[in-house]
């Protein structure tokens, strides 16, 4: 009897230690960020490598690094959070921590399950939007890696096609918010059938953009860019070749 009781007490003790370990790990994640970064984060959504995870799940990713904080109310899958804490396990490919206290929205913004850095309902009414600034938003990993990621999302093969191909392009514009989110993505000019998947890929890979800065202040910025691609005679995109920014206001 005493032996069984001893085993039960040991088991309960181990469970308590495990729970304490989870809490301590979460507290360490929060404590690593200064108060002005929007904490505490108990009611934030945790997004690890593009996927929402439970707070306790961070225990299994000790090396996760916070790289973006959205400190305003959001709605994801009909659930409201106080904000979003973005983390990555790829430390070598993680951008510097981005934070701005002004999201540009007074109401909770809606984020899609697959586009967790794209604001679907952003309101620009009475907001100043910059077209020129000292530091312009750009993908932190560089343009080549950015196009490679878009290629992966739309399912392009790394092998060259043997079919006849043609050069084409898509021009788009979007807003980079003061918290490094994207919003109001739309094509410039005529839209072609092959553009739909590419537009969706830009939304899905939207956590990568840096902030627009001028004299140390973050700005709302309208980014315009053209992506040049190769397609076959049926209009299927074969490769994303290069990217150029437009500065025509």
From TrEMBL:
It comes from the Bacteria. Keywords: Signal. Residues 1-18 form the signal peptide. This is TonB C-terminal domain-containing protein. It comes from Sphingobacterium olei.
């Amino acid at each position: 009897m005493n032996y069984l009781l001893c085993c039960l007490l040991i088991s309960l003790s181990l469970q308590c230690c495990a729970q304490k370990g989870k809490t301590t790990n979460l507290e360490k994640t929060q404590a690593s960020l200064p108060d002005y970064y929007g904490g505490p984060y108990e009611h934030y959504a945790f997004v690890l490598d593009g996927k929402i995870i439970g707070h306790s799940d961070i225990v299994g990713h000790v090396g996760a690094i916070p790289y973006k904080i959205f400190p305003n109310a959001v709605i994801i899958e009909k659930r409201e959070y106080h904000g979003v804490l973005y983390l990555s396990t790829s430390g070598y490919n993680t951008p510097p921590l981005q934070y701005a206290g002004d999201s540009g929205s007074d109401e909770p913004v809606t984020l899609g399950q697959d586009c967790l850095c794209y604001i679907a309902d952003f309101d620009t009414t009475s907001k100043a939007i910059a077209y020129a600034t000292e530091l312009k938003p750009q993908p932190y990993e560089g343009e080549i890696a950015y196009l490679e990621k878009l290629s992966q999302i739309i399912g392009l093969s790394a092998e060259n096609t043997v079919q006849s191909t043609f050069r084409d392009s898509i021009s788009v514009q979007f807003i980079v918010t003061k918290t490094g989110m994207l919003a109001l993505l739309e094509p410039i000019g005529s839209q072609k059938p092959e553009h739909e998947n590419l537009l969706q890929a830009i939304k899905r890979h939207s956590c990568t953009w840096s902030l627009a800065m001028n004299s140390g202040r973050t700005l709302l910025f309208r980014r315009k860019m053209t992506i040049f691609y190769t397609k076959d005679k049926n209009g299927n995109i074969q490769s994303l070749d290069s990217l150029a920014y437009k500065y025509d206001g």
